[in-house]
Amino acid sequence: MPLQNEPIAEVDNIVRTFTKPLVKPRKGRARRLYGFLKREKRTIRAVDGVSFSIRSGECVALLGPNGAGKSTTVKLLSGILCPTSGEARLFGMDPYRNRTECAMRYGVVFGQRTLLWRHVPVIESLKLYQKMYNVPKSDFESRLEEFSEILEIRNYLATAPRRLSLGERMRCEIIAALLHKPEIIFLDEPTVGLDVVAKKRIRDFVRRINRDENVTVLLCSHSMRDVEELTDRIILISKGHIKFDGSKHQLKRRWHNERQIRVIYRKPKTRAWRRQLRGISGVTGLVVSNGQFELTINQDQIAVPTILKLILDLVTVEDIEVKEPNLEDIIRGIFGEDEFQSSSQSEEVST
Q: Is-contact 33 206, C-beta < 8 A?
């Protein structure tokens, strides 16, 4: 088992391309026949020169708009797909060529695909995984008992997945992915379509196994609540390229340096306090109304503690609130332009 802080998963300049038919409207029977026989194709670079590594015990979010290459990257790391070029390594091995050996050491949950047999009771699917992963009966029973209690699925074990709600089924899916004590788990949209209660149970459970069992987590999700609560590191991918790799704090500082400070005050200490606030370098906005004001600052020019001290010198304060930037708004702002740009740069036409 990899030691703490050792790389457990790596991709080095990895590329994965797909070809799809290029459909063009053609008039005339002869032209349509020619188009059918001599079909043009387009090459899509789903992942284009991606490099990163994940260390043992990390909880990492891989984020990006639809079609950015997130799921393809997960499939390359889990050995489901083979890279067109570049290298993927899991536990120091090629996950595609050593898929069986790697699969014994990782777990995977795809929110849109099931690990369970649809028409047989959940417990029968779990017993099948026990045999597949050679889990000793005593370990299987104790682990199933522990997880069933935490995720509250004991009453569903005798039920076929087709009769379960989405939230109930997803809790069973996560147990199936973790019964064999994997060293890393890939979670692709694990809370999609779930209600708030089911999402919280799953988040709490993932956080627990990351903390208590040192299970490395790679999360792909459009839920910023999942990202905020589970991960410390974020990798942003856009059109197959890495756009950012760092902590949530670094992400917020890089793309959202503004802070809003809301102040409820009793009385000013000087008549010119508004003018003085507006004149401070780094203050980009001031809105005053009914005994309170909201100040917008640029953290590259002035630090929050500095502006708070200046505020206390100018007015008698009753309450101060520093508003943190919303991660969802930041991510939307980063990818907003990318989603509207043409994808033709990532495709090339071939015949």
A: no
